[in-house]
Amino acid sequence: MRKLLFFTTVLLLAACSDDTPIINLPAPDTGVVINGVRWATRNVAAPGTFAENPEDVGMFFQWNRQIGWTNNGSLLNSNNETNWTHTNQAGADWYADNDPCPEGWRVPTQAELMSLRDAGGSWTTMNGVPGRLFGTRSNGIFLPASGWLNNGNADNRGALYDEGRLGLYWSRTISGNNQARSLMFSSSIAGGMRSNGRAEGYNIRCVAE
Q: What predicted TM-score, i.e. pTM, was given to this entire model?
């Protein structure tokens, strides 16, 4: 009997060792409520659309701009152009006319991203994609660690850095004239708020309006 129990335990542990977080991820238009905020379950892809799967990168966005950028090194944007804009966008907020979230959703505030961070979670992978689970496995969302697009010198503008190591997600909250606040996480950082240049390319995870 002891051998049978031991064998059953091993099987159960093996079944739970899959890299897919055991979380309820409904369709993105339904979302998940965490600390009173309803979060989309996918990143923004082309403006006005969600990525197909929770682990998909979607597209990268410069702050207060509606144009999405790919992560494959081609610098092709959602308008089928390659004209990377290296200047920081003005504005005191991410204006509604520039918001790339689908209808009924918007870019989160810094306070909302902080509430997501404070919900806890863990570094994990989903279908082989590294990222972070925020919330619990029964009521949480997965954010892929997609890296970020650089706005450095002319040779590296739009280059992808830290894919699989860092997740950087914009808030709509400003920080001075040329920066805005973002959530950053990694395998060792549960989620820190940072001020970054507005022309860098980060992902967006929307909240319901």
A: 0.88
